[in-house]
Amino acid sequence: MRLTTVTAPTLKQAMSRIQQEYGDDAVVLSSKQILSPTGESLMEVSVGIDKDPSQGMQPQSQTATANSQADVMKMLASSYKKDAASNPTEPPLAEEQTTDLSALLNEHGVAAEFTQRIDKACSSLAETGFSTEDTLEMVLSKMVQFTPSGKLLGGRKILAFIGPTGAGKTTTLAKLAVEERKKGADIGLISLDHFKIGGAEQIKIYAEALGADYALCENINDVKDALERFDHKDRIFIDTMGINPFERSRFDYLKKVLGQTNAQVNLVLPCNLHAQELATLPRAFRELNPQMLTFSKMDETAHLGGIINAAISSELKVCYATDGQQVPDDILELDAPSLARKLLTKPKLPWEDF
Q: What is the distance between the alpha carbons of residues 337 and 349, in angstroms, rounded to a whole number?
């Protein structure tokens, strides 16, 4: 498989070019919006090509010839780094677990469209000698926008956490706040959850434990006052009320509030939802302009296809996942190697032997 990128003013034009130049041999891995050197907005689409377009054509130059399948595979393999020391005692996957990638992805609940794309790309990469785990890591690294925590927390000063009811927003926020406090950061915590009885109490307890300033805001003016009071802080975390995506009234309110904050909006989604339901939630919350996805409650399900469905369909950046309720523990950085290994493990229900 050969990897290439196609850019065009719109996604439709890019897909048209791909179809014209590569036909059915093209496997679309990812797409994203970029800026040209002149500031023009463009769509960049990463594509894997099953066949070398030079076949049956005039001999290529020495430079083009060097861009062989083997060279491309080496480039792709070097584009990610597997941290062998991160799980030194974890045994390698059993061979039988990697024999039918498509069946495993289906069992995890990965959407048929994405399963087909992933399986096709992995099959082509496997022909060059890579293992199933390695090929899946490489393909996921292209299809999902994994973002290191340094880029997430090294970005904007204000981070807001949104999501459906019961998603685990407050606990996730607390875990990240503790990590920042450990680094010596002066933090402020803001809660917008005055709708639910006791909704703000949990984060207030976390604030007291961290020695952090805290504010409960019931309207936009309260938010403005809190942000002004916390302006000297290194980091400000905003906890929001849970939203039922079928109840639109709170969306307008939260959209107005977040519009006053210039916050990086992090959408928290629980992994234990149905995979198809999970895939639709980023679109349901799109008007709140989330930039990041965090997946919670990974320990409460064995079927992780919803992560793939939501991440690829939304094209949002992915960084953290939580796998328990302990604060500040039970949080991990989600990346291609860790997700590939989980997807290559057959889902087991609670009553089955592990």
A: 23
pLDDT digits (tens, 9 = 90+) for 220-234: 899 999 999 999 999
Number of alpha carbons in the 13 Å side-chain half-sphere of residue 334: 26
CB 2 within 8 A of CB 67: yes
Which of 335, 341, 322, 334 has the alpha carbon at shortest distance from 91?
A: 341
292 vs 296: CA distance, rounded Å: 13
DSSP 236-269: EEEE-----TT-THHHHHHHHHHTTTTPEEEEEE
Q: Left, alpha or beta for 56 (phi > 0: left; psi -120 to 50: alpha)?
A: left
pLDDT tens per residue across span 196-207: 656 667 788 888
* Strand 235-239 relative to strand 158-162, pairing: parallel
Whole-angstrom CA distances from 307 to 57, 233, 318, 325 are 42, 33, 10, 19
| Rg of the chain, C-alpha, whole Å | 22
pLDDT band at 82 (very low <50, low <70, confident <90, very high): very low
The answer on pLDDT for 343 being more than 70 is yes
Instruction: Give the span between the Cα atoms of 192 and 195, in whole angstroms.
Output: 8
Q: Which two tokens stand for residue 36?
A: 């040209």
* pTM (2 d.p.): 0.74
Helices (H), 144-248: 149-153, 169-182, 201-210, 220-229
Taking the C-alpha atoms of residue 96 and residue 266, their distance in angstroms, rounded to an integer, is 37
User: Alpha helices of the chain — where are they, by DSSP H?
Assistant: 11-22, 62-66, 69-78, 101-108, 112-126, 132-143, 149-153, 169-182, 201-210, 220-229, 249-258, 275-284, 305-314, 336-343
Intra-chain end-to-end CA distance of the chain, in Å = 37
Number of H helices, E strands in the chain: 14, 12
